[in-house]
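hey can u check if this looks right to u? its 332 residues, i copy pasted from the old doc so theres a chance i mangled smth
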Amino acid sequence: MLRPLVTALLLAATLPALADDAPKAEALGARLERAEYPYPVSMFPVKSQGQALEMAYMDLKPEHPNGRTAVLLHGKNFCGPYWAATAEHLRAKGFRVVIPDQVGFCKSSKPRGYQYSFHQLAANTHDLLASLGVEKATVVAHSMGGMLGARYALMYPQGVEKLVLVDPIGLEDWKAKGVPWRSVDAWYASELKTSYASIKAYQLKSYYDGKWKPEYDRWALMQAGMYEGDGREASAWAGALTYDMIYTQPVVYEFPDIRVPTALIIGQRDRTAIGRDGTPADVAAKLGDYPTLGKEAASRIPGATLVPLDGLGHSPMIEAPERFYRALDGVL
């Protein structure tokens, strides 16, 4: 009679250990105050909408300058440091590399009241580059950064040497395709539930085609760290406002107006789509078809080059860095 009980107790004793194998997200602060960045972080003062804000950025100088500057624009669910390896690759080729955190994200200010728009974020970025003496830059833009990069190129074509869109979101208008509108309050309620587990589950499905590697954890943990402890409410509110920006401000209709040399690097297994979780199944199944969306975007942007990356998902610079670098070098 004791053996089943002993077995049950031993099994129960092992379960917490198995659960503890999952990484634990540390409270890093709403502005990642307790997170280390790979390079010194400077704060650019942004006077915007009647507020004194700060825009964090890293500025890498090359040992042997080629006279060119690359600005790397992050995605919605990432912060500047995930670009570090790409930045080193570019710096070794002579590029000066500027990596900003946009207002509302990561180490930058998260104002409670702010009219977020890609126009505003582009203007902030332009002012930052001007303050650094950068008149023209190669813009490498990933995910949400792709929407920002496209807007930047439309607003400041004279300031863009080349636009490189890496698995950008916004290649489709989700509202027009049937994704239901969601209020800021609803986005906020959803964002308050953010955790390492929810971030990993979303990225595993949409970004990495169901294949998770331990090296992805550091970026999920950095994102989750803003939502732990005292940073949760400010991060969730900023997240809600910026999701509303993404949903309501499509740039896809203006692709034919882009007049700078443009390349798209598209992971063919990417299936990212905003709002899919609240969308009818028949509509959701048609969203995020990046092989098709990439071709459509390249055909609508005058003279654009398309570089498909077979077998890769939403973040090729993380998933297969060397393949990504070859693609990036090819378009630069």
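Residues 30 and 231 are 4 Å apart (CA to CA).
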